[in-house]
């Protein structure tokens, strides 16, 4: 990736943890201007939710934007809670996530991040998806960023919350989606 930002881009998010992580991963590719806009989310699959959110954001902002949607998909539950993980976590907490899998032998999960880019109002969003396989575990580490304390990526002995941010930012679902988005943005000068 290049060493100077190619352009300024509006990132529609009110989540400061997410903003810091995305800024760290995209450093030198694009300068992000955060905008906290409360966007309604449709029900559906991750790609449908992501595209709709980006379309709405571009209409409101009247400029090129990126948005992000994260899913946590339990394999035992055929992908649920998926894009609704935010609401499950809010109501059940970290302990509730693992309790949801009581009675199942399979605690494996997939973290999925989808970034959507729109060139502006009326422009169809382009989606960039990243995935990270892992397992749902009893919460370990600071419970400050979503479900990170309850997700342990395959091949590691630590949850995302326990990991050094630099390591997490090289293996996470978000970093994999941003690698694709960053490569796309570099072709847009």
UniProtKB/TrEMBL annotation:
GO terms for biological process: deoxyribonucleoside triphosphate catabolic process; nucleotide metabolic process. Gene3D superfamilies: 3.90.950.10. It catalyses: dITP + H2O = dIMP + diphosphate + H(+); ITP + H2O = IMP + diphosphate + H(+); N(6)-hydroxy-dATP + H2O = N(6)-hydroxy-dAMP + diphosphate + H(+); XTP + H2O = XMP + diphosphate + H(+). It is found in: Cytoplasm; Nucleus. Binds 1 divalent metal cation per subunit; can use either Mg(2+) or Mn(2+). Its EC number is 3.6.1.66. Keywords: Cytoplasm, Hydrolase, Ligase, Magnesium, Manganese, Metal-binding, Nucleotide metabolism, Nucleotide-binding, Nucleus. Mg(2+) binds at residues 41, 69. Pyrophosphatase that hydrolyzes non-canonical purine nucleotides such as inosine triphosphate (ITP), deoxyinosine triphosphate (dITP) or xanthosine 5'-triphosphate (XTP) to their respective monophosphate derivatives. The enzyme does not distinguish between the deoxy- and ribose forms. Probably excludes non-canonical purines from RNA and DNA precursor pools, thus preventing their incorporation into RNA and DNA and avoiding chromosomal lesions. Pyrophosphatase that hydrolyzes the non-canonical purine nucleotides inosine triphosphate (ITP), deoxyinosine triphosphate (dITP) as well as 2'-deoxy-N-6-hydroxylaminopurine triphosphate (dHAPTP) and xanthosine 5'-triphosphate (XTP) to their respective monophosphate derivatives. The enzyme does not distinguish between the deoxy- and ribose forms. Probably excludes non-canonical purines from RNA and DNA precursor pools, thus preventing their incorporation into RNA and DNA and avoiding chromosomal lesions. HAMAP family: HAM1_NTPase. Belongs to the HAM1 NTPase family. Homodimer. This is Inosine triphosphate pyrophosphatase. It comes from Dispira parvispora.
